[in-house]
């Protein structure tokens, strides 16, 4: 019995070791297979790191089938299916087998809408962008610094995103923190049709009389549109605010209902363009008749590998600002240079 157990353990360990050494492979219709690492698929384009070739972008229409194990993949299909598993080649062209830990399931390659590699290492799950910019006007002797940070962390069912931005005005060696924003969100996916979210927000906007706003909330969301090149989601929930205006007057327990529209468009073949727009309408509950809007639209062009130029348009509206500042609408256009990692 002991000998049988030993033989069984040796076989299992050998199988695991062989599987760990296997490389991901993409099989094409009209060219030789490509060996390397499947990093992900997003709206019709595969991101693949080929051996000695670096990062490549492959149109899914060219792919006959796939073999990829890694630590596992989170897979969303065009038919709103949600699977965690690994890829095995399929005998039929244009098909792939996904093993989810229980059974083999067959899918059409072109219907793999969103595939994310789940890394075993914590730090390899983190991806993001950092950017900075500066503008100066000689006639007014005023300079403006801007910076932004985007971080993302993915697990099997949870996405965590951290977004921050700052604008600092410099005049005669005096620095003024004009606008600051920090947003932490977490999305937990029950399936491709529904997800729950939690959010924490810090804001500063001198133009609208806000010295500091702290906001927490939760809710649910669903994809309204899923397309080969983009996605539109709708989110509803409830948030509570604590505000301190520029005269240091504090207001707490301000409840609002957020209605969030989030749109993302990808163009992954050259020139690479990433377009995102988030617009949130806050409907006041504690302060009846108060409506606010926070919005941000970003366009990024990749000029060389991992380096891009960014344009960010922000807009904020409050029909009942804490202190009337002569205008209840604030907007701006920011340019910066960014690095993706």
Task: Describe the structure in your own words.
- The protein has one helix spanning 2-21; strands spanning 24-28, 34-42, 45-50, 54-59, 63-77, 82-89, 95-99, 104-108, 112-117, 126-137, 142-154, 158-171, 174-191, 194-205, 210-226, 230-245, 250-267, 273-284, 291-304, 307-318, 329-340.
- With 341 residues, it is mainly beta.
- The radius of gyration is 24 Å and the shape is globular.
Q: How would you summarize this macromolecular structure in one to three sentences?
A:
The chain is mainly beta. 6% of the residues lie in helices and 69% in strands.
Give the arrangement of secondary structure elements.
Layout: H1 2-21, E1 24-28, E2 34-42, E3 45-50, E4 54-59, E5 63-77, E6 82-89, E7 95-99, E8 104-108, E9 112-117, E10 126-137, E11 142-154, E12 158-171, E13 174-191, E14 194-205, E15 210-226, E16 230-245, E17 250-267, E18 273-284, E19 291-304, E20 307-318, E21 329-340
What is the CATH topology of the largest domain? Porin
Would you tell me the structural class of the helices and strands? mainly beta
CATH superfamily of the largest domain: monomeric porin ompg
CATH class of the largest domain: Mainly Beta
Envelope shape: globular
Distance between the termini: 52 Å
Beta-strand share of residues: over 45%
**Mean pLDDT reading:** 86
């Amino acid at each position: 019995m002991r000998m049988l157990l030993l033989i069984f353990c040796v076989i299992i360990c050998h199988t695991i070791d062989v599987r760990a050494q296997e490389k991901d492979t993409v099989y094409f219709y009209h060219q030789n297979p490509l060996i390397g690492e499947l990093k992900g698929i997003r709206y019709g384009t595969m991101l693949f790191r080929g051996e000695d070739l670096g990062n490549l972008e492959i149109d899914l229409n060219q792919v006959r089938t796939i073999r990829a194990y890694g630590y596992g993949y989170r897979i969303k299909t065009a038919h709103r299916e949600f699977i965690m598993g690994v890829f095995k080649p399929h005998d039929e062209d244009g098909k792939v087998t996904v093993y989810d830990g229980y059974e083999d399931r067959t899918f059409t390659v072109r219907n793999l809408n969103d595939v994310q590699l789940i890394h075993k290492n914590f730090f390899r799950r983190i991806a993001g962008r950092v950017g900075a910019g500066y503008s100066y006007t000689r006639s007014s002797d005023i300079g403006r610094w801007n910076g932004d940070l985007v971080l993302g962390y993915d697990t099997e069912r949870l996405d965590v995103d951290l977004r921050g931005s700052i604008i600092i005005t410099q005049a005669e060696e005096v620095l003024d923190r004009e606008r600051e924003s920090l947003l932490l969100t977490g999305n937990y996916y029950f399936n491709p049709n529904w997800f729950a979210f939690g959010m924490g927000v810090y804001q500063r906007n001198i133009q609208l009389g806000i010295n500091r706003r702290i906001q927490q909330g939760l809710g649910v969301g669903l994809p309204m549109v899923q397309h080969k090149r983009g996605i539109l989601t709708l989110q509803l929930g409830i948030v509570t605010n604590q505000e301190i205006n520029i005269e240091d007057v504090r207001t707490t327990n301000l409840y609002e209902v957020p209605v969030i529209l989030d749109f993302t468009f990808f163009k992954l073949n050259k020139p690479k363009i990433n377009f995102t727009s988030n617009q949130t309408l806050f409907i006041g509950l504690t302060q009846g008749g108060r409506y606010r809007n926070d919005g941000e639209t970003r366009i990024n062009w990749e000029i060389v590998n991992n380096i891009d130029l960014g344009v960010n348009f922000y807009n904020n509206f409050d029909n009942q600002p804490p202190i009337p500042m002569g205008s209840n609408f604030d907007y701006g256009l920011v340019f910066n240079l960014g690095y993706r990692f």
